[in-house]
Amino acid sequence: MKKSYAVIGLGRFGGSICKELSREGKEVLALDSDEDKVNEFKEIASDAVIADATDEAALKELGFRNIDHVIVAIGDNIHASILTTLILKELGIKRLTVKAQNDYHEKVLNKIGADEIVHPERDMGKRIAHSIISSNVLDY
Ligand code: ATP
């Protein structure tokens, strides 16, 4: 059976994941509480819905239980990110990738069972620093 994905939070990070998965032909449910963001993804994702991800009943109604991999890309609102992760964990989602804002956020996400925790800005900064070093090595 085809693997299904959901992206919660359609900011720059979540939006880019959603676009790439869709471009690769994956089935993606895009969700955000902001109507304008959701409208942007109506033509891109398989389905795009306006909902508050901290509303357990809404996630159940949307059939989140049957989604294989959920990406929680809520940034600034750490409280919403943690609560959403907890609800998804309790719904029994097989794989959860969550964006962390700082080390304390990461610790909590670890404790509640997020499978993969990412710090996009920090990770990209590290990668670029290494690529700068290796291009300098080639220069000299
Ligand atoms: P980026 O750097 O990826 O642009 P960010 O770190 O600035 O994102 P935010 O803009 O805070 O992160 O959040 C990303 C998205 O998550 C926003 O589009 C916001 O509307 C959405 N969001 C925040 N809280 C919720 C929620 N409770 N339910 C659904 N979506 C939410």
TrEMBL record:
Residues 2-119 form the RCK N-terminal domain. It comes from the Bacteria. GO terms for molecular function: monoatomic cation transmembrane transporter activity. GO terms for biological process: potassium ion transport. This is Potassium transporter Trk. It comes from Halalkalibacillus sediminis. The chain holds residues 1 to 140 of 222 of the full protein.
